[in-house]
């Protein structure tokens, strides 16, 4: 938690559940990532946290944006971003949304299939397009399935077709999975993209851009590689596979820019046991999976919790949200421990919750209102 967030929570004691975001930290993360990958152009993955104060700060820093929907495109433009600095990066778009983005000035679009490419050719003629390919997601704590991307051979054929359809065959993208704790998938993906570049050059299509997607990890409960280490590995792979003929490099960080800028503040609703001799207490919070902590699905993302009793005797707990759905259990198998003194009414802080929380909150499940957001 940043000092600014700690001070704000101590001084204002806002109603829970809420998220407090230190927008200065987002700026620091942007600068640090840019320094770690100086050759890369940063397209912030808006879906991680689309709040206007964040988009406005990043616009001021010269960031570009990766939007997943026409609505996100509009949020970027409303925050002051130039439309030509917005990439419409979802490979699944309605044709009328492509047309709306094109009319607003967006000229960069992703695809991973022929029907999508043909939609772009009709609705956004002449635009720059890039094809997303499958890559290894090994090492990602939030991996992506085969939902996105296509095989490299198909990408080659489609990039040739892109040119024939009057589009600008711009480059190749991939995504190594979110919260990627290893640099190896980036390196093997860059090698794979280099082969696509070589084969297409032989076919007369000169690609210019490689989009590394997101995945850059954040420290939750366990250590992750530093971004400088990942940056060095990525640049090493580009030197190895592209030599002096470096392409334009695009990165789409989401989590890395915003996660550790945010803290969720929640109140303990109940601490109980399921049997007289049961050693495990159930701790029910006023936020759960439906309140925005969706990435606790499968206990994939394990957040660090701070309580007013830290440092005193603790014991094993299962941690759950307040709704009447058993899916709303956050951690049962991850060996969480919390102080024995913990009791209802205590406030708990959940650290590094600035990414993928606010937008995942359900609107009114069980009548609970979504968490409040404070940008400071
Ligand atoms: C979600 C997403 C990102 C951001 O991923 P992070 O792991 O949060 O950095 C980047 N690019 C695409 C295409 C995405 O879908």
Automatic annotation (TrEMBL):
SUPFAM superfamilies: Alanine racemase C-terminal domain-like (SSF50621), PLP-binding barrel (SSF51419). GO terms for biological process: putrescine biosynthetic process from arginine, via ornithine. GO terms for cellular component: cytoplasm. Transmembrane segments: none annotated. The active site is at residue 324. Coiled coil: none annotated. The modification N6-(pyridoxal phosphate)lysine is found at residue 47. Keywords: Lyase, Pyridoxal phosphate. It comes from the Bacteria. Its EC number is 4.1.1.17. The keyword Lyase applies. It holds the Pfam family Orn_Arg_deC_N. One of its GO terms (molecular function) is ornithine decarboxylase activity. Its cofactor is pyridoxal 5'-phosphate. It catalyses: L-ornithine + H(+) = putrescine + CO2. Residues 24-259 form the Orn/DAP/Arg decarboxylase 2 N-terminal domain. Pathway: Amine and polyamine biosynthesis; putrescine biosynthesis via L-ornithine pathway; putrescine from L-ornithine: step 1/1. This is ornithine decarboxylase. It comes from Rhodovarius crocodyli.
């Amino acid at each position: 938690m940043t000092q600014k967030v700690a001070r704000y929570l101590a001084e204002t004691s806002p109603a829970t559940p809420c998220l407090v975001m230190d927008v200065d930290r987002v700026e620091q993360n942007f600068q640090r990532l840019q320094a770690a990958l100086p050759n890369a152009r940063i397209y912030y993955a808006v879906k991680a946290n689309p709040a206007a104060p964040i988009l406005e700060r990043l616009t001021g820093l010269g960031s570009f944006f990766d939007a997943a929907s026409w609505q996100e495109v509009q949020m970027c433009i409303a925050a002051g971003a130039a439309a030509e600095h917005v990439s419409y990066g979802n490979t699944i778009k309605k044709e009328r949304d492509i047309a709306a983005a094109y009319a607003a000035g967006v000229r960069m679009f992703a695809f991973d299939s022929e029907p999508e490419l043909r939609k772009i050719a009709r609705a956004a003629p002449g635009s720059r397009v890039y094809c997303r390919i499958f890559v290894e997601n090994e090492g990602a704590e939030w991996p992506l399935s085969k939902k996105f991307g296509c095989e490299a051979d198909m990408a080659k054929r489609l990039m040739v077709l892109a040119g024939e359809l009057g589009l600008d065959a711009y480059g190749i993208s991939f995504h190594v999975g979110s919260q990627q704790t290893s640099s190896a998938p980036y390196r093997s993906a860059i090698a794979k993209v280099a082969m696509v570049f070589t084969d297409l050059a032989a076919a007369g299509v000169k690609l210019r851009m490689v989009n590394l997607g997101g995945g850059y990890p954040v420290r939750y409960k366990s250590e992750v590689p530093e971004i400088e280490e990942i940056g060095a590995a990525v640049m090493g792979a580009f030197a190895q596979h592209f030599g002096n003929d470096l392409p334009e490099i695009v990165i789409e960080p989401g989590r890395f820019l915003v996660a550790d800028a945010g803290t969720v503040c929640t109140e303990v609703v109940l601490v109980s046991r399921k049997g007289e001799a049961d050693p495990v207490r159930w701790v029910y919070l006023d936020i759960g999976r439906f309140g925005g902590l969706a990435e606790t699905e499968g206990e994939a993302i394990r957040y660090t919790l701070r309580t007013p009793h830290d440092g005193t005797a603790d014991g094993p707990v299962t941690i759950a949200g307040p709704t009447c759905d058993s899916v709303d259990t956050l951690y049962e198998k991850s060996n969480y421990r919390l102080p024995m003194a913990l009791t209802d009414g205590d406030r708990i802080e959940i650290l590094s919750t600035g990414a993928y929380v606010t937008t995942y909150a359900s609107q009114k499940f069980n009548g609970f209102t979504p968490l409040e957001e404070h940008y400071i």
